[in-house]
């Protein structure tokens, strides 16, 4: 019975030990792109881990293809982060040297005060010198970080100057899976559609995407299955994806790989399958392999994971709001001018929320505080949209009343 239903049972310590000793490690696109998102020291720690298991690493063709597709986008984004930091530093310096407004405000307090502190404004040079020194220290530090991180040019002439790419290509040489031709892909897309209707993982969380994008996770999964079955290998899959079509969750927390994935792998490959998020993989690799991994690298990996989760939550929130608004407007049959008014308010609030969320994502606050504040901002945005609705909720068809009430719309009086 244990062997028959092993995919339903938690792994024992002996199972985990055997997996880390014998399994092939498979990585998703997020892991590869994170080499460009993290600091140079953390990137080196990632490579230290891969070097240790270089004979047991492998990439699905889907992952390698997505990596090259998004690599330049990530590089450009990280370059802009340095430009943004330097721009903010320059703005801070300018603000610190604006004494005129302070001088004018204090002069309104009275003649005696203005006269007595005039000397302070006359002696402000030492303050300006201090501001210049602070700005210089920060600018040099940012420039040093930028140079050490080494963000390559993205044009084809300089692609081989990318040290990160060079190491990745070397490590995964001859360790990338086969691609599927158009005939196989067409068949797999149809299979994916059938699975998505049954909410069979992975990939059903992407079923509303357009084109081939919605099939990426399923194609990746099939390539893992084919590779593992052909070579009869246990697999540890490392991913930055935290959606419910990959994981079993309890109260929003990841518990284990989705049970259907474990079942399908066991039935097809007859081997063990397990998954780790990127941050947990780095932590476990440090302990399991007794590697000298800096604690700051683990902290930075956790921060990257938090930031990506915030971004994903924000994207899903806006997508859902668009759907709800469209449905509610159709139900209420708003006049054109009112729909235009709501659309304009929505545009203004979306812009404001995005700006504020960006600010809080960059603040050095703990992830829980940031998430709470961002959640509050989203509630403000949601409330404004629904406050503009003037029709009573009782006019909405019964099948939609319960769903809309959950969104916080209060009954309006006739």
Distance between the termini: 64 Å
* Rough outline: elongated
Strand content: 5-15%
Give the strand tally: 6
Following the backbone from N to C, one meets helices and strands in this order, namely HEHHEHHHHHHHHEEEHEHHHHH
Query: Looking across the biggest beta sheet, what order are the strands in?
Result: 2-1-3-6
**Overall pLDDT, averaged?**
78
Give the % helix: 55-70%
Largest sheet: 4 strands, parallel
Provide a count of the helices: 17
- Give the uncertain stretches in residue-range form: 329-333, 387-414
Which structural category do the helix and sheet elements fall into?
alpha/beta
Query: What does the radius of gyration come to?
Result: 27 Å
Describe this structure in words.
There is one protein chain. By secondary structure, this protein is α/β, with parallel strands linked by helices. Mean pLDDT is 78; it is low at 329-333 and 387-414. The strands form two sheets. The protein has a four-stranded parallel sheet with strand order 2-1-3-6. A two-stranded antiparallel sheet has the order 4-5. α13 packs antiparallel against α14 (295-332) and α14 runs parallel beside α16 (367-387). The N and C termini lie far apart (64 Å). It is elongated. The protein has 17 helices and six strands. Helices cover 65% and strands 6% of the residues. It has a domain at 296-406.
């Amino acid at each position: 019975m244990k062997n028959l239903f092993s995919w339903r049972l938690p792994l024992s310590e002996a199972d985990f030990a055997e997996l880390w000793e014998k399994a092939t490690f498979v990585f998703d696109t997020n892991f590869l792109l994170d080499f460009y998102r993290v600091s140079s020291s953390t990137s080196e720690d990632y490579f230290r881990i891969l070097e240790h298991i270089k004979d047991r690493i492998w990439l699905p063709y889907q992952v390698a293809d997505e990596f090259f597709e998004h690599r330049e986008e990530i590089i450009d984004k990280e370059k802009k982060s340095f430009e943004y930091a330097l721009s903010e530093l320059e703005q801070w310096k300018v603000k610190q040297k604006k004494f005129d407004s302070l001088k004018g405000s204090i002069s309104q307090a009275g003649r005696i005060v203005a006269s007595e502190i005039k000397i302070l404004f006359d002696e402000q040079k030492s303050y300006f010198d201090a501001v210049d020194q602070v700005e210089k220290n920060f600018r040099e530090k940012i420039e040093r970080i930028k140079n050490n991180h080494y963000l390559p040019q993205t044009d084809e002439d300089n692609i081989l100057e990318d040290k990160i790419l060079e190491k990745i290509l070397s490590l995964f040489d001859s360790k990338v899976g086969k691609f599927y031709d158009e005939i196989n892909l067409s068949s797999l897309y149809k299979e994916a559609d059938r699975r998505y209707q049954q909410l069979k993982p992975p990939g059903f969380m992407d079923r509303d995407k357009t084109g081939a994008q919605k099939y990426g996770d399923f194609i990746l999964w099939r390539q893992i299955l084919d590779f593992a079955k052909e070579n009869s290998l246990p697999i540890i899959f490392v991913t930055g994806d935290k959606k419910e079509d990959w994981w079993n969750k309890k109260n929003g927390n990841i518990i284990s790989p989705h049970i259907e994935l474990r079942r399908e792998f066991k039935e097809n490959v007859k081997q063990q399958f397990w998954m780790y998020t990127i941050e947990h993989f780095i932590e476990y690799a440090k302990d399991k392999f007794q590697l000298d991994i800096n604690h700051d690298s683990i902290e930075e990996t956790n921060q990257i994971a938090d930031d990506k989760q915030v971004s994903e939550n924000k994207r899903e929130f806006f997508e859902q709001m668009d759907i709800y608004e469209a449905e509610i407007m159709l139900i209420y049959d708003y006049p054109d001018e009112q729909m235009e008014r709501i659309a304009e308010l929505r545009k203004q609030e979306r812009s404001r929320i995005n700006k504020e969320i960006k600010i809080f994502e960059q603040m050095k606050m703990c992830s829980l505080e940031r998430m709470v504040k961002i959640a509050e901002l989203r509630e403000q945005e949601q409330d404004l949209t629904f406050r503009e609705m003037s029709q009573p909720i009782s006019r909405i068809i019964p099948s939609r009343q319960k769903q809309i009430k959950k969104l916080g719309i209060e009954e309006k009086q006739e």
